[in-house]
Amino acid sequence: MIERRRAPRHRVLKGATVTFDGVGLDCTVRNLSATGAAIDFASAISVPSSFVLTISSDHLVRRCHPVWSNDKRIGVAFDDDVIEQGRTRAA
């Protein structure tokens, strides 16, 4: 299989939160790169076209969008903006 990702992903196991419409859902980040991540949920879920992923242990807060999903796992791509302490800046 040909790898089509722009940046290599690294296997991780980090607790995180996906937030949209004022709701926060716990999830687990399974792999991570500079451009995206794969996240697992406790049960199958549908997420909107844009949401915020927060990995508190890494002080990472990124707006992202889903690019694929498979049962309880969703692959996301990070959008160009980085959210820091309530402010947004270009990545």
Question: How would you describe this structure to a colleague?
Answer:
This protein is mainly beta. The chain has one domain (10-90): predicted glycosyltransferase like domains (Thrombin, subunit H, Beta Barrel). 0% of the residues lie in helices and 64% in strands. The protein contains no helices and seven strands. The chain is globular and about 30 Å long.
Helix-strand blueprint:
Layout: E1 10-20, E2 23-32, E3 36-40, E4 51-55, E5 60-70, E6 73-84, E7 87-90
Antiparallel strand pairs: 1-2, 1-4, 2-3, 3-6, 4-5, 5-6, 6-7
- Categorize the overall geometry: globular
Strand content: over 45%
Tally of structural domains: 1
Average residue pLDDT: 87
Helicity level: under 10%
CATH class: Mainly Beta
Main sheet characteristics: 6 strands, antiparallel, barrel
Q: Unreliable stretches, pLDDT < 50, 5 or more residues?
A: none
What name does the CATH topology carry? Thrombin, subunit H
CATH architecture title: Beta Barrel
Name the helix and strand elements from N-terminus to C-terminus, one letter apiece: EEEEEEE
Gap between N and C termini, in Å? 30 Å
From the alpha carbons, calculate the radius of gyration and give it in angstroms.
12 Å
